[in-house]
Amino acid sequence: MGRYVVRRLLQMIPVFVGATLLIFLMVNVMGDPIAGLCGERACDPATAAQLKKEFGLDKPLWQQYLTYMGNVFTGDFGTAFNGQPVTELMATAFPVTIRLTIVAILFEIVIGITLGVVTGMRRGRPVDTGVLLATLVVISVPTFVTGLLLQLLLGVQWHWIQPSVSQAATFGELIVPGLVLAAVSLAYVTRLTRTSIAENKRSDYVRTAVAKGLPRHRVITRHLLRNSLIPVVTFIGADIGALMGGAIVTERIFNIHGVGYQLYQGILRQNTQTVVGFVTVLVLVFLVANLLVDLLYAVLDPRIRYA
Amino acid sequence: MLLEVRDLHVEFRTRDGIAKAVNGVSYGVDAGETLAVLGESGSGKSVTAQAVMGILDMPPGRITGGEILFRDQDLLTLKEEDRRKVRGAGMAMIFQDALSSLNPVLSVGDQLGEMFVVHRGMSKKDARARAVELMDRVRIPGAAQRVRDYPHQFSGGMRQRIMIAMALALEPALIIADEPTTALDVTVQAQVMDLLAELQREYAMALILITHDLGVVADVADRIAVMYAGRIVESAPVHDIYKAPAHPYTRGLLDSIPRLDHKGRELYAIKGLPPNLMDIPPGCAFHPRCPMARDVCRTDPPPLYEVSEARASACHFWQECLHG
Amino acid sequence: MPEQSYEPDRAIAGTGAGGAMDLAASEAETLERTPGGPQGTGPQAKPRSLWSDAWRDLRRNPVFLVSGLVIVFLVVISLWPSLIASGSPLQCDLAKAQEGSQPGAPFGYDGQGCNVYTRTVYGARTSVTVGVCATLGVALLGSALGGLAGFFGGAWDSFLSRITDVFFAIPVVLGGLVLLSVVTSNTVWPVIGFMVLLGWPQISRIARGSVITAKQNDYVQAARALGASHSRILLRHIAPNAVAPVIVVATIALGTYISLEATLSYLGVGLKPPNVSWGIDISAASPYIRNAPHALLWPSGALAVTVLAFIMLGDAVRDALDPKLR
Q1: To bridge B150 with a disulfide, which of A152, A302, B33, C216 should be the other Cys (CB 3.0-4.6 Å)?
Q2: In a 3-state reduction of DSSP, which class is residue B70?
Q3: Cα gap A47→A187, rounded to integer Å
């Protein structure tokens, strides 16, 4: 197990370097890293040269990347467009997005798995067909459309919720946005659970469990679910990173001042430091979530643990 | 009779039609007796066993007729909860592929102990102790340590011993072993088979041994029932059958066993393929492959003729077969 | 073999291992499988190919028929939008802003006084173009890279696996924002290019996996033992088996690319006016959500139906091609 963890950690490093380097290049090569620094107008050439020197932008790219990463690991993410350190933006933005992600994950677990188990046990029945079609519809409607429609219906027409979320962004306010963020993944969780249950239901070891004279609920919980949920749990775990990175659309619709909002501002104002900083953290979250999922996988499935 | 199957019919509804897997099978086992059920894949031998155990996949499977009497009680009319209590405690089953038949994410100790926890209401700790005892019983070395291991950590032979231990756990009156050695290496096959036979004697259990391998049967079985296309075509005490089969299909099976005294001669094989269960030939289902087939075989399904007191054959020309 | 031959699910799943021995049969048609496996349900059953089997299934599947019809309709109106819409999508009259349904404008007018019906019809062209081009690019690039990696293995395979990991670690919408925000060209091509750049690893993984599976089949081993060349094995024995999952994933991906284009345009980094795109229209309509919800609902509906059609098509094709799910 220990060696497995170390191996996975080592595998993470090149992916982290690759992904951050890619983002770094995208921003620095294709954009103009000092574009946003002189306010709304373009910098005059002298100031530009001065700024470039100050930020080390006259050095080769690989050196810039190394310097940046060095700074990042000492906790220095640079300065945002409004003069605030990027880390301060992160400190206000991340808790909001984390709350939003937690709500979304809870929806995936509670609704997604329940629907998946119900349909997987009743394959081919009307419930199954209905839920299956519903998941297709949910997957097909882009998140921003789901978000706008729910905002229109629940917020504008029926006044169940405030159309936009306050600065505090409490869990209560984040229920609908969380559902919007979760929608597509929720549908995937349902389908994945359903397939997994249906497949394992026919497996030899479930037949053995029945032949042992175990009561139905024990066959289902201890043998069928335990095995079927392994891929589902790993999907949900890996989704944490994807949800946080994808929250940008939901946050924009409901005016939530989270990671997506800050990133969007950073991109609009072409603030390199904000963009690269936030993306770096998001990539790291994604990788750590995946690492944890792999470890969880090993805990759940002894065949991997002892491989 | 401990178990008596009477005129059992099972069919499967598939996308392409209805497959008639079992078409009126009757057989019985006495306490302590070993019955070998012999037949090719698709002959219905496993389906019959699954129907007896009550683990048939329904749907697509469906029992369309017959009775399964266990201790004079028709299992098919029992409520599911009562039926469940028979499984494991009254009768148990050993499957062919132990690797896929054991739960990959539970330790073998958990899977063995579960029998005692569920059926006997034992504590987890006591159940674990009984699991170790059982593993000792089926001669798994280092049982006390290995009880925590997972199925994939055992060799094929050891895994099959665990399946046997699981079946033995509650000392059932009947064990059904479905091709218990087919998935194993030849050298391990004999060990596992000997162990099974020995334990059966020790516990005085009845054994239904499902196999396609006539070689395995001779040493172990008391009686043989040969199945073809979902029917019993011949049933007889084991020695009678080896001496002189009363059905051309049995004869074909016997002739296709490689024998040392026939060295150098071409090995016999029954011509043709097993029948399509969606479209079983009329008359005697075996007639398209039968060297003795005549016109009557194509039209009239043969009844089960009584050959002698303990012997029956479903061939119009069983006498010819027996003496020829 | 266990004795479940009459049960279609297990029987067909089992043939992969048991039925692949017959080299002659596999030479004739690599995808052929006899129902019921080697000891089969009998000589009467005709061998059927995966594709003809799938086609037989699809023709009877209402999901496939409906989504197919929707897609044909979409393709036709994106080629010839003037068939069902008169006037130009760019002709707007502020005086008519936010007006509801009326003759000549069944969907009403949006906040800028543009005809929502005309814009919705013309928006199909953008979506279909982006979807089809991005999918073609992704499928070709992904299956070429992934297929070769799976076939040859070794260093190239490990390198490519790491690269795909890198791309997977970048959230798609985020990557789009970062990359497309610096692009000045206002055409579909940067959007398509971005999708190919970030989309190929998905197909590459699928292609790699199915090539590796196909490579391990006995008949491929046999062909190799008989001295068939790399290219012959790859094209004749492996590609036909590996292509089915790629087609399925690509069809579904087509829907998601359409959705992604709309999302990026909604965020303001995909296509910008004067392009006509559902994403632009939805974004433009969202400030007027109280007074003119129709301007939001029609393009949203069109977008949802389009994406749904492609995803349902992919789903139906997958069900038909994947014998395990039967």
Answers
A1: A302
A2: strand
A3: 52
* Chosen from B105, B112, B175 to mutate, greatest number of chain A CBs within 10 A: B105
Which residue of A122, A196, A202, A212 is the best one to mutate when testing the B interface, meaning the one whose CB has the most B CBs within 10 A?
A212
The C-alpha of A305 sits at a distance from chain B's nearest C-alpha, in angstroms, of: 11
- The verdict on A254 and A200 lying in the same domain is yes
> Cβ atoms within 10 A of the Cβ of A215, count?
13
Interchain proximity A279–C304, CB inside 8 Å: no
User: Are the beta carbons of A121 and A128 closer than 8 angstroms?
Assistant: no
pTM for the full predicted model? 0.80
Distance from CA of B144 to the nearest CA of C (A): 33
Looking at the DSSP assignment, which residues form a beta bridge with residue B312? Answer: B235, B306
In chain B, % of residues over pLDDT 70: 98
In a domain, A117, yes or no: yes
E strand or H helix at C84: none
Q: Whole domain around residue A32: which residue ranges?
A: 2-72
How far apart, in Å, are the Cα atoms of A39 and each of A262, A264, B195, B298, C196?
17, 17, 86, 97, 34
A306, part of any domain: no
Co-location of A42 and A107 in the same domain: no
The one-letter code for the residue type at B162 is I
Chain A partners within 8 Å of C179 (Cβ): 26, 30
Which residues have C-beta within 8 Å of that of residue B151, sequence separation ≥ 6? B98, B99, B102, B103, B104, B108, B111, B159, B162
Total domain count for chain A?
Answer: 2
Is the domain of A126 the same as that of A224? Answer: yes
Q: Which of A40, A72, A104 is the last residue of a domain?
A: A72
Percent of chain B predicted with pLDDT > 90: 18
In a domain, A87, yes or no: no
Instruction: Find, in chain C, the residue whose alpha carbon is nearest to that of A11.
Output: C162
* Interface pTM, i.e. ipTM: 0.86
Residue entry with tokens 């949910």: A138
Q: In the listed set A72, A107, A129, which residue is the last one of a domain according to the structure?
A: A72
φ, ψ of residue B68 in degrees (nearest 5): -125, 100
Confidence grade of residue A295 (pLDDT, cut at 50, 70, 90):
confident
> Residue C128's closest CA among C243, C20, C242, C258?
C258
Q: Provide, for chain A, the percentages of residues in helix, strand and coil under a 3-state DSSP scheme, each rounded to the nearest 5.
A: 80, 0, 20
Decide if C263 touches A, using CB distance below 8 A.
yes
- Residue C38, exposed/middle/buried by CB under 10 A (0-12, 13-18, 19+)? middle
Both A180 and A244 in one domain: the answer is yes
Residue A83 in domain = no
pLDDT in tens, chain C (326 residues): 333 333 333 222 322 222 222 222 222 222 223 333 333 333 344 445 667 777 887 888 888 899 999 999 999 988 888 877 777 777 777 777 677 777 777 777 777 777 888 888 888 888 899 999 999 999 999 988 988 888 888 888 888 888 888 888 888 888 888 888 777 778 888 889 989 988 888 888 888 888 888 877 777 778 877 877 777 777 777 777 778 888 888 888 898 899 898 888 888 888 888 888 888 888 888 887 777 788 888 888 899 999 989 888 888 888 887 655 44
Question: A249: domain CATH number?
Answer: 1.10.3720.10
A34 and A120 in a common domain: no
pLDDT in the model for residue C2: 36
As a whole number of angstroms, the distance between CA A156 and CA A140 comes to: 24
Strand B73-74 and strand B61-70: the pairing is antiparallel
Q: Are residues A180 and A68 in the same domain?
A: no
A268 in the same domain as A149:
yes
Q: Are residues A263 and A226 in the same domain?
A: yes
Beta-carbon contacts below 8 Å between B and C: 60
Q: Are strands B223-228 and B34-38 parallel, antiparallel or unpaired?
A: parallel
